């Protein structure tokens, strides 16, 4: 029985800031951001959006009535959780109207959370072939205005339906993974922004990729020629390229050309969204699948997932017959085309406008947010969510 990604959808807030203009405002050569880091635009989340609403809006783009009846497990991968007790999955379950006999959980391991969710989902479907699992990777990346990490901020969510006999990507059982206790990136409970040792984190990312790739080769006899493309977790789009270059000499000239060309296609969406933590790898996969013109059924796609702190995994999937028809490329194109550019000053104001943490009540202007699902306000220390279609 094949198990894998049957549907995949994406959502980003309707605001973005241009990275060249941000660089100029910070007194930095724009090429450092656009070429050195590899980012063009950065999604900016208004106060009416959080990890829950982004995830729910992403899922809305792919689910139908049959999904609502068959989903019996919702797994929410995030490091932007809104509650230390209640999972974001429970909110999404309600906002979407998923049938009540379902398990709902939240997973946390930095940017690895959604990958952990997919692996758990595979096991659930193996035991329950008629089930469908909704896996969510949703985050708002915040380092702070004027910080070194500001250029790698972003916001968005990826939603995936994992099922038997998937229409898009059948996930292989072959996998290699690694855990080590390193402090390359962290966000203490008391902090609204993350801390990162940038140089060390880059080194750990590459080290984890090389370790898991070597383990994958040793376990399964794999070579670069086995893969039509390799997608990476992308905190910024140059990061994956640095890792890929470490192994390109293992392949032929044809392998190098193919993998580099597909890598560039896999970064297009990430370049105009920014870092979305748990969803970044799957946004890269989505970019590759929707924008590539020469992928075909039977092609094997490698996937490298990395979550600081740190856990890494290399695994793979095989494209299925008719996978293009199961994608929502036109919908995602409309989403990107409908976004609004904000000035650097406007971005700073949006960034600084946060929900109260002192128990105050607040009512928000949801009419200014075109998203179907928004935060309507706060009351008695509870976030009030709104699905505009109800």
From TrEMBL:
Annotated residues that bind (3S)-3-hydroxy-3-methylglutaryl-CoA are located at 29, 143, 242, 275
In what residue span(s) does the Hydroxymethylglutaryl-coenzyme A synthase N-terminal domain sit? 3-164
Q: Where does the Hydroxymethylglutaryl-coenzyme A synthase C-terminal domain start and stop, copy by copy? A: 180-252, 262-351
For this protein, the record's Pfam families field holds: HMG_CoA_synt_C, HMG_CoA_synt_N
Keywords from UniProt, A to Z, are: Acyltransferase, Transferase
The EC code for this enzyme is: 2.3.3.10
Q: Its domain of life?
A: Bacteria
Which top class of enzyme applies to this chain?
A: transferase
**GO biological processes:** acetyl-CoA metabolic process
Which InterPro entries does the entry mention?
Answer: HMG_CoA_synt_C_dom, HMG_CoA_synth_N, HMG_CoA_synthase_prok, Thiolase-like
Query: Which residues does the Swiss-Prot or TrEMBL record annotate as the active site?
Result: 79 (proton donor/acceptor), 111 (acyl-thioester intermediate), 233 (proton donor/acceptor)
> What GO molecular function terms would the record report?
hydroxymethylglutaryl-CoA synthase activity
The family assignment reads:
Belongs to the thiolase-like superfamily. HMG-CoA synthase family.
Task: Please give the name of this protein.
Answer: Hydroxymethylglutaryl-CoA synthase
Origin species: Trichococcus shcherbakoviae subsp. psychrophilus
